[in-house]
User: Fold this.
Amino acid sequence: MSADVKKRVEGITRESTQAMIDKALEIYPEKARKKREPHLAPNDPEATSACVKSNRKTIPGVMSARGCAYAGAKGVVWGPIRDMAHISHGPVGCGWYSWGTRRNLMSGVNGVSNFAMQMTSDFQEKDIVYGGDKKLATLLRETKELFPLAKGISVLSECPVGLIGDDINSVARTMSKELDLPVFPCNCEGFRGVSQSLGHHISNDTIRDYVIETREFTEPAGPYDIALIGDYNIGGDVWSVKPLLEECGLNVKASWTGDGQIEQIAATHQVKLNVIHCYRSMNYMARVMEEKYKIPWLELNFFGPTKIKASLRKLAEHFDDNIKRKVEAAIAKYDPEMQKVIAEYRPRLEGKKVMLYVGGLRPRHTVSAYEDLGMQVVGSGYEFAHNDDYERTAPEMPEATVIYDDVSEYELEQFVHTLKPDLVGSGIKEKYLLQKMGIPFRQMHSWDYSGPYHGYMGFPVFARDIDMAVNSPTWKLVKAPF
Amino acid sequence: MSNDLGLPVKPVTEISLEDETRISAWINTEDYKLKNFARTALVVNPAHACQPLGAYLAAAGFEGTLPFVHGAQGCTSYYRSTFNRHFREPSPAVSSSMTEDGAVFGGQNNLHEGLENAYTLYKPKMIAVFTSCMPEVIGDDLRSFIGNARQKGCIPKDFLLPFANTPSFSGSHVHGYDSMLMAILQTLTEGKAVEGRCTGKLNFIAGFDANTGNYREYKKIFELFDIPYTFLADITETFDSPNDGTYRTYPGGTSLLEAGDSINGKATVTVGPFATSKTFVWLKEQYAGEHVSMPMPMGIAKTDAFLMKLSELFGKPVPEELKAERGRAVDAMTDAQQYMHGKKFAVYGDSDYLLGYVSFLLEMGAVPRHILCSKGSKKLERELHALLEASPFGKDSQVYMNKDLWHLRSLVMTDMVDGIIGDTHGKQVARDAKIPLFRFGFPIFDRVNLHRRPIVGYQGTINMLTEICNKFIDIVDETCDNRHFEIMR
Assistant:
């Protein structure tokens, strides 16, 4: 869609959207309403600043989908690194709940060369009283002994660790030397910050302080060396994008962090370009590498053929004619296949309305993929975004559609009642609520146990899944004939 | 060098195939098992969650009740998504969303603001407050905070607001269930005891049981007996509600009035002795009528005992329909015994479930070879040994208390069994050992509708053995050579 033709949705105006927002807020107590108001607004595609406030504290007692800093560290940044042990340091729960629940797939052998497991120090009362540093040291020795191929250990602090004044940083330093194995201390206690987002930032800082530049690639640097940043291999996304980039002549030296390897990550300061997918969770390190090592970075969108094509061409501009030729060849090879996919599904999806509420990059990056299928996104928002995410969202979304930040379950329900979408794409906590309302739903964090959705391998899967959700005959059975 | 660990810069290496093969073999050995069992600090793949999860399940079992987690907000999202995944149902709960300033000033302001908002927005009849780590570490005083909330008018003065301290660094989800259930019953029954009154009803508690099929099975039994009952902490409709196009925040749960009157009951029975030990001690003091704490009715003997107890308590004979069902279950067992007899199992789970699995396996002539509880007790150990000693099929069993699923892996790989009874988290061990996993416990994240099929009572016994025997037969069909592929099995 060209910039001069504004995307519009029939029946949606600034006034209608504002009226819907005002109505949803009526029920709140005065103080809470004042706090929530700035987080909900009609979209202005041409605005230069974000239309909603974001990255603020969640209002207590309001059903929010947000997680915590630990969730951002364990679930997002560290967890997907496959060849390291990740210790959930503190009581048993946090690691148990986040055990295998993000779908960041990984290569290797479980317990041998990948560690998609729940490793924890399982704090007891006595650890709270006397501190857990000694236990941590013992635990690190045991980890090295039982998992000798692990290339490092991350120590991810849960709430009590920061509250009782343990010094995991000092333990990590001592034990790294004793074990001759990097131990990365990540002070990501769940009470820090307002959402997962600070966990991403803290984890990026840990990578900056302890990981980057500690390794060097053995083979000589090449002109096409890049790193894939912020792709977490949900349902195998990296395994779709990486071969595509390689087919375009690029040399993907490291994957951050989906199916990632810590030593490749540690040597990423040697690449020529960082290709970033999830800006929210990884822009910090992209900026650090830009400043410190002069590595440029590029934010790309691999959802749906329109954006994939544009992204590949944007990427080619950073390289020579060799790459440009290969990029065009890849587009020429795959785009017609994607048009066939569209020809199959679009007739069944044309004009259908979608609402999104996700995290990271998806509330903006997937908009165009739905549009490729003839659908319209009529509302979008993020759990833990910042201003810059909303700035990037505005031009993607149609005029005056509702934008919601840290939307409460109550608000989302009200918006859905008004907008009557044909599909909602959100998370597990929203899924069954919407389905009870008879509304088709896809989990857009986990690809609903499907995937990949990224790249040319992903789009046919995405299209099939969306069609399957929207056009399932089961929805017609919800209303009984009696 | 930029890093802060003081390690020298090294070249990038990869894990070699040779190393991967070598260690893959090593972790299956006796040598590895010894090292694995020598662990004192590291816990790998524990089969238990933390207290607040259990508190949530108890709270979700009451009419119009909003679970409210006092603590940092991520905890609530974890509990909610766990139940979403297991039941494939909505799972509402709120948090007081404590942050750094809570560490300095305490959580009272968050709790007050949270109570006011939750009360206004979600219109609950009761809010059940329980804690995650943060307020427990900093020492928040829930009783006075809640008293102050009433004084300030955040909630009406007489609003039902039970609360429980459920620190995650002590016990497990089972203990959180116990504490919350007791707090709820204390709140609801306060001042409700009437001298000489008897509701004539059975009060029933299922314990930490996340199988809605079990709840329906218990109800079926009470109805066949024609015993009037109050099912306390009844999650049946909360986590198995119909899809009719309308979302309801509170689709079910025990009536609060009935729960209040339960203190005047004729008899109170819990089949979760480990999940309700505190509650039971309290209600024995407070509740009228008789009090019974007995094992979950899994398998024939434990179901027999359960039915005989109901019969005795209410002076009613065991209904003909249940006698016939017993006969059908025994018929199913004798028909299928050859597929399970002598088969060896590794079993793990919560204490109450574990006793049921073992009892059922022994009845089938199967061997519960490795029995593991990742949050066990001496009492459980004693009870397991008593079961095992009473059966010739229990003589080769070993009981492991406070061990995790990485220990279980070592046990299975060095002393192979035919199947594992557990939950979704056992699937990696089952895959490595190339044996089936029977998902009878909690959580089940990777199969549909298993939480809807009962495993208690005679019907539950039929369900368990059907699933196990057919899987063993499937394996024969899938793995036998052509000459041995047969129509009949």
